[in-house]
Amino acid sequence: MSECVFCKIVAGQIPSAKVYEDEFTLAFMDIGEVSPGHVLVAVKPHVDSIYGLDDALAAAVFRTAARVARAVRNAYSPDGVTLYQANGVAAGQTVFHFHLHLVPRYARDGMRLTWPAKNPSREQLEANAAKLRAALE
Ligand code: AMP
Ligand code: ZN
């Protein structure tokens, strides 16, 4: 993908502050960090979103995320860390090359994700689960 900014970072065509890489993933600092230590874990091949990850890439992303999360904890001692990952415009995705955010968190850091819980009935939850079981590939 010649116009993809993260493909260019993976290829070394534009600069990034690299933290870690392996065969499948590259972790680098988010240029628009929410707080120091805000890292993106991107897959190396161009994959738009979570739907395109094969098992090897999916496993590698979380392996790298866990490894970098421990580094974030060791380096910054945050109060917490949030993993944020968006797929599609409606979900807030702005770079359409799969990546996961690791955001060090602090009390009153201003980061918010509103979560309008609906508390559906047990029957509705069972119907939702059945619908998804039927859709599993
Ligand atoms: P998302 O909304 O999950 O797609 O987030 C994309 C993220 O990529 C944003 O937080 C941007 O700050 C970050 N970003 C965009 N361009 C670059 C870049 N060249 N280097 C590092 N981070 C970037
Ligand atoms: Zn790309």
What does this entry look like structurally?
The protein has 137 residues and is of the alpha+beta class. It has a single domain (5-111), classed as HIT family, subunit A (2-Layer Sandwich). 31% of the residues lie in helices and 19% in strands. Strands 1-2-3-5-4 form a 5-stranded antiparallel sheet, covered by helices on one side. The protein is globular. The structure holds adenosine monophosphate (AMP) and zinc ion (ZN). Adenosine monophosphate binds next to loops.
Q: How would you describe this structure in keywords?
A:
alpha+beta, HIT family, subunit A, five-stranded antiparallel sheet, globular, binds zinc ion
Q: Which strand order do you get reading across the main beta sheet?
A: 1-2-3-5-4
> What class would the helix/strand composition place it in?
alpha+beta
- Bound small molecules, which ones? adenosine monophosphate, zinc ion
Distance between the termini: 27 Å
Residues in β-strands, percent? 15-25%
Helix count, per DSSP? 3
Oligomeric composition of the shown chains = single chain
Give the overall shape, derived from the CA principal axes: globular
What's the architecture, going by CATH?
A: 2-Layer Sandwich
Helicity, in percent?
A: 25-40%
Largest sheet: 5 strands, antiparallel
**Tally of DSSP β-strands:** 5
What is the radius of gyration? 17 Å
